[in-house]
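Example 5.3 — Formate hydrogenlyase subunit 7
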Amino acid sequence: MAKEVSIADLKAKLKNVIKRSVYLFRVDCGGCNGCEIEIFGAITPVFDAERFGIKVVSTPRHADILLFTGAMTRAMRLPAIRAYEAAPDPKIVVSYGACAISGGIFHDCYSVWRGTETAFPVDVYIPGCPPTPAATIHGLAMALDLLEQKIKGEQFVETEVTHVTPKYEGVDPDLARAIAREARRLSGYHQGRRIAEQYLQFVKEGDPLTVDQKIKEFIKQEKDPRLAEIILSLHKLYMERVGQYARQQYAKQSKVL
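Solution (predicted structure tokens):
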């Protein structure tokens, strides 16, 4: 059995990375303040993030780490970009919480630009809704190691190429995203995901004509009119996308000829 690394060894390694105190500036882009409460918990004496040299500052001009919380709202997008530009290089950008990573439950709201990465590159993601103080310190430890790499200019190249198998083989990823987004819009986040997966199973099984026949049979047999209406709306979107693709391919062939 491999010997577990002790907490003392981890502390020693982290302190070896930190040559001085690291300054952190927090930017709330539009969240529920749940993430802020966990951040404040991380700097209390119970967890004491400052023992690692992590200090919160009041201006991005002094910051080594920019920690963004909440979804990227329209109102806070420009202030967030100004904070990013004001921080000196090298700097680390951290997306903190589900909303900052992807927009969370507000991702398709009219006033939201999804997550932090829509405005500038992100170095570290700390997932959670909200992340715990322990996860916060773990994520900041990862950020500190990245900061050390940026200062020293270290680069790593992966020698092995990993291939990820798509969830729906044979289905265009853009089409799958469009179907999932439309399903969530029509029936909510939880039910929309289930209905989108149900519809994409039909798409995965055959060509457009076969899919069209199966969907029509499904709608005739479905007893829930609400589900039938949503499936029909998704099918209309699918047929529109298939028609656009066919027209694009025909135009390309015409240019070649």
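Remark. Residues 225-256 form the longest helix (32 residues).
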